[in-house]
Write a structure and sequence with these properties.
With 118 residues, this protein is an all-beta fold. It has a domain of 73 residues. 0% of the residues lie in helices and 53% in strands. The chain contains no helices and 11 strands. Strands 3, 4, 6 and 11 form a 4-stranded antiparallel beta sheet that branches. Strand 9 and strand 10 form a beta hairpin. 16% of the residues are buried.
């Protein structure tokens, strides 16, 4: 549906939209959203081949996570960065409030846990 209206000697107003007519009407609603407290917990920087653990504190639970790699080392003879291999970036299978991160070839990896208040 479109409508063009002349409102003065030099002004036109355009209105565009769509109208849906149906025999069934339904309205989906969600409960009002409250403020949700989230926090990021940082694990220690783990050495190459080791795993960093980021654990949510008491009264919170894990909702996600991620990682950061330490500084890249450069082979001085070829002036190229050393290859890096991410070995884990996932929630812990044993500790449900912990995110794990580890890498080989980098100076290290650091885990981040995204935590939400219970």
């Amino acid at each position: 549906m479109a409508r063009l209206t002349w409102t003065s000697p030099r002004t036109w107003t355009a209105v565009a939209g769509a109208l849906l007519v149906t025999g069934v009407f339904g309205l989906a609603t969600a409960p009002p959203a409250g403020a949700v407290a989230t926090s990021v917990v940082t694990g220690d920087l783990a050495a190459s081949g080791s795993v960093s653990h980021a654990t949510c504190g008491q009264g919170t639970h894990l909702i996600g996570g991620g990682f950061s790699l330490g500084p890249v080392t450069v082979d001085q003879s070829t002036n190229t960065p050393q290859p890096e291999l991410l070995i884990v970036n996932a929630p812990s299978p044993d500790q449900h409030d912990t995110w794990l991160a580890g890498a080989v070839g980098a100076v290290g990896a650091q885990a981040f846990a995204l935590c939400e208040a219970d």
